[in-house]
Amino acid sequence: MEEKSRKDHRALLNPGEENELEVFGYETQNLRRVLCLLISVLTCGVLLLVFYWKPQWRVWATCIPCPLQEADTILLRTTDEFQRYMRKKVICLDLSTLKFPISKNPEEPLVADRYSVINQAVLKPELKLRYIQVQKIRYVWDNVEKRFQKVGLLEDSNSCYDIHHTFGQGLTSEEQEVRRLVCGPNAIEVEIQPIWKLLVKQVLNPFYVFQAFTLTLWLSQGYIPYAVAIIILSVISIVLTVYDLRQQSVNLHNLVEDHNKVQVTISVKGQGLQELESRLLVPGDILILPGKFSLPCDAVLIDGSCVVNEGMLTGESIPVTKTPLPHTENTTAWKSYSLEDYRKHVLFCGTEVIQVKPTGLGPVRAVVLQTGYNTAKGDLVRSILYPRPLNFKLYSDAFKFIVFLAFLGVMGFFYALGVYMYHGVSPRDTVTMALLLLTVAVPPVLPAALTTGIVYAQKRLKRKNIFCISPQRINMCGQINLVCFDKTGTLTEDGLDLWGTVPTADNCFQEVHSFSSGKALPWSPLCAAMASCHSLILLDGTIQGDPLDLRMFESTAWIMEDFNVDHCKFGISASNVIIKPGPKASRSPVEAIAILRQFPFSSSLQRMSVVAQLSGEDHFHVYMKGAPEMLARFCRSETVPKNFSQMLRNYTVQGFRVIALAHKALKMGKFSEVESLTREKVESELTFLGLLVMENRLKKETKPVLKELSEARIRTVMITGDNLQTAITVARNSEMIPQGSRVILVEAKEPEEFVPASVTWQLVENRECEPGKNETYINIGKSSVTDGERGSCYHFAMSGKSYQVIFQHFNSLLPKILVNGTIFARMSPGQKSSLVEEFQKLNYYVGMCGDGANDCGALKMAHAGVSLSEQEASVASPFTSKTANIECVPHLIKEGRAALVSSFGVFKYLTMYGIIQLIGTSLLYWQLQLFGNYQYLMQDIAITLMVCLTMSSTHAYPKLSPYRPAGQLLSPPLLLSVFLNTCFTCIVQVCAFVYVKQQPWYCEVYRYRECFLDNQSNFSTNVSLERNWTGNATLVPGSILSFESTTLWPITTINCITEAFIFSKGKPFRKPIYTNYIFSFLLVSTLGLTVFLQFSDFQDIYSGMELIPTITSWRVSVLVAAFTHFCVAFFVEDAILQNRELWLLIKKELGIYSKSPYRNWQKKLAEDPTWPPTNRTDYSGDGKNGFYINQGYESSEQIPRENLELGGQTTEQHFWTRL
């Protein structure tokens, strides 16, 4: 019973999805609430502050666990490594408030959709429903399934038949009202956060609360100037942060505001057409598409077709044709029925309808699928509003370091308590002084200092046209050691130049027609296919569409016209588009071609086809184009030339992009018969027509950038949707695969009836065929890697299909391939994201650079995604470059490295600054003293504050070094650096403290200050150097004046300058320190000022600084001690701790190796004599190879992308919020 109760108390929200959450049910107890309120009043609101930081504590303190069905409070916890908590109140909806009567009979459904969760969520006869709102999505309690489920969408279990027949006539007005109440408005509302709310959120950050406590204490002790300086800096920091957040909120609000103000026409069952605001739409409504139109929701097309611009989703402003959902009696879920091609029926929110094509007499209609934040655009906005936390070692280490500094402060606190209590000081003064020592250890300037490096880097990136929406990712860029590139539009030019056509006749390839010759393409079925098989549209007299389609069509010299009555004379059926020969076209027996039906291109199907009619003919033709390997499968084998594979390879290995074309005549004369044809029927038994060969040139920046990354030992990988052979050639030409390296083709096959899944390894050989041309041939069974060549460089290349099979059936083999995998071709968007994630699992820091077209998922998944597109879809990419080439990648890595090194330097400096002051103050506390306000002020403002603001402004080094900076604070060199510098400063300060007491002129001023003041009146300031220490006649008795503080202050001050200098290392990640003019001037001027104050004999200066004049020889001794400390610290830091070769030698001698999975795999594979395999085939289940079948695998291509779990994705969370 207890186990059942525990099970009812907990459930999963969005199981298996990226935003998976654990939910726990709690019931509020009034007595507990009253007690917590009482404690909050007694602690002056401290408990409320703790509850604000830890919402789970508030729930645990005021509620008791209960089944979710009875809960009034829900505690949610993320299932990732961060385990973040959220608290939500359960809201109750009463359906009896609706203006029309609702049946209370449990047997009668509320809505017509039998799969709808609404029917299971409403309790009858109470007519009540419980829901929670989490990250803008509404979840209702399902009384049957006993879990919370999303509303605001049609269930995926609906079949094509259900969508046509349940929703085809529209919803009744009563059902619309029910759905509006339950699902909420169809609006993507981004609230512009009030400034006071943003301000409160910033101020209540734990570190700022500690800072407020510190500053209050300092102000009460009269340390006003520094406290005021920190207050001003903090206020500026908070104001800038609030302004930035406010601007982001306003920009995002403006981005989505128009979406909520669209007027739409819907069809209401029994009432006809009705016009209303888009925010009133509900899932299941019938939407009428009038023409040009911005979609306010996700909808599935059921009647007619249309052309949309999906630039918001894909980053490519290319018209996409959408076709209606087929009428079928099949009971399979509609997405499964259409497989991965279901998107061709879906109109996504935020996309623009630019043309509609009604079929028959009725308008173009679509059923509303999803509303509000459930839509594609809503999901994009949610990914910006609720990014996943950034999992970067630096931030977790920084938190540990702060805890360590706080621990030192606590030790100082108890030390001060002991000393002051021992000397019998009043309890109030004892506590005050102890708290002062506690605040010395944790510098209040820390948060501002750590963000300055990122701010400087962000400004420098902006000058290079690289814009960043996630500043915390800049530090991560410094750790990147693998960059994935898209090919088309990223490595190569976006446009394609036509090279020629290779027609076929009598099962043989004919002479090449070269476009460079200037001759018009002769009329043939191949010419007809090129003129008609495309998705181009005529918009305001301009032809628009895919650049490839456009270049292909223009090469025929035909023209496109809208259909009108005059075209009826050609004897062709009514159509939206007519193709006619242009003035420059070759003579043709055909006066016009009408495109009647289109089966759009899909990256998963790798083909498209059209049904067309030639003028003067009463029958129809099918034309098809696509990837040659795919298209050949649909052609009659006798029409495909025998040397097809060889001819295709000859072109692809030279980097050409090749498209194949095919044709067949349909033996039917009625247009109605064409309308009912299925794609499978159309795309079969075709005649192969030939090849269209296009050039895809490398961008001029590609080769130098790849070379620069290679020299910096940063791996480069190509992920493309193009042909594998073309990708290999582009990789060779760009030197992504260096000359002399071997390429091994990995081809995996799905299991068949009696044959398990298999992987074949084929060696690709590179031979010289003619001067200036490299040709690649796949040589199977004739060559292998010899023992002497096994250790040499080799690269794996594979297609998306092979990747999918290996992921499913050879999962243990995948890491072995990835550590040397360079080319991944024919990859779908889902596979790109999956591949980036797999690289991350091997502990690679992955950068992704793409043009945004199909790379959005991968750009968000990578540690640093750079989009070369400015489309709205790229908003979710952390970085966007306005310069459309890959030069932005090395710039980003350089700035990331500089920012990372700066962060480490500032952190080390502030740690040492806290420790230096802690040691000096602790020594003075021993005799109930402390430094003077102006002495602290000199160190705090003139040095530390200015150092923190200027140290990070050193520019990045112009050349990428072949190794990365350290990625974690808790590394031996850094810890040793802090430890040794602590030892050095401790030794110098303790020795000076002890040694000054042994001087013949020493006097315990703090103990005998009345006597000291009486005696000093008998001396003149100019008597002699030996007696000059009595020269200050204006000293005020107190706990400041002493020879100890006069000796320790210049030592601690010069120590601070020393640490700032040695922690500002330049090369190899930053320019030399002297190039940072402000910082260099600051160090020199503060050092000069300190020495001046040390050796000046001006009474006013000594009085103001609360110092005692000493003999010159002692001042020189103090200076020598500080200089010696500088020399030792500089030598140790530069020659030992920053000596990479020394650390590598130590690691080698001690047998310490990297724990990164990819490093371990590289080491294992280098020692494996059987690796890499060549010219062999392995089968799944073969125990000796360690392969296994991954039963838990779900194909990313067979289910919607949003249902995939994207583990390991990282986004921003400032580490201060984890305090």
From TrEMBL:
Taxonomic superkingdom: Eukaryota
GO (cellular component) term, any one: late endosome membrane
InterPro entries from the UniProt entry: ATPase_P-typ_cation-transptr_N, ATPase_P-typ_cyto_dom_N, ATPase_P-typ_P_site, ATPase_P-typ_TM_dom_sf, ATPase_P-typ_transduc_dom_A_sf, ATPase_P-type_domA, HAD-like_sf, HAD_sf
Limits of the P-type ATPase A domain: 263-384
Major site of localization recorded for this protein: membrane
GO function term, MF aspect, one: ATP hydrolysis activity
CDD domains given in the database record: P-type_ATPase_cation
GO biological process: intracellular calcium ion homeostasis
Sequence ranges assigned to domain P5B-type ATPase N-terminal in this UniProt record: 17-142
Transmembrane spans: 34-53, 223-243, 398-422, 434-457, 906-928, 974-996, 1076-1096, 1116-1137
Organism: Catagonus wagneri (Chacoan peccary)
PROSITE patterns reported for this sequence: ATPASE_E1_E2 (PS00154)
Membrane topology label: Multi-pass membrane protein
Catalytic activity: ATP + H2O = ADP + phosphate + H(+)
Listed EC numbers: 7.2.2.-
Similarity comment: family membership: Belongs to the cation transport ATPase (P-type) (TC 3.A.3) family. Type V subfamily.
Annotated keywords: ATP-binding, Glycoprotein, Magnesium, Membrane, Metal-binding, Nucleotide-binding, Translocase, Transmembrane, Transmembrane helix
Domain Cation-transporting P-type ATPase N-terminal: 166-213
Keyword field contains Hydrolase: no
Protein name per its UniProtKB record: Cation-transporting ATPase
Subcellular location: Membrane
Enzyme class name: translocase
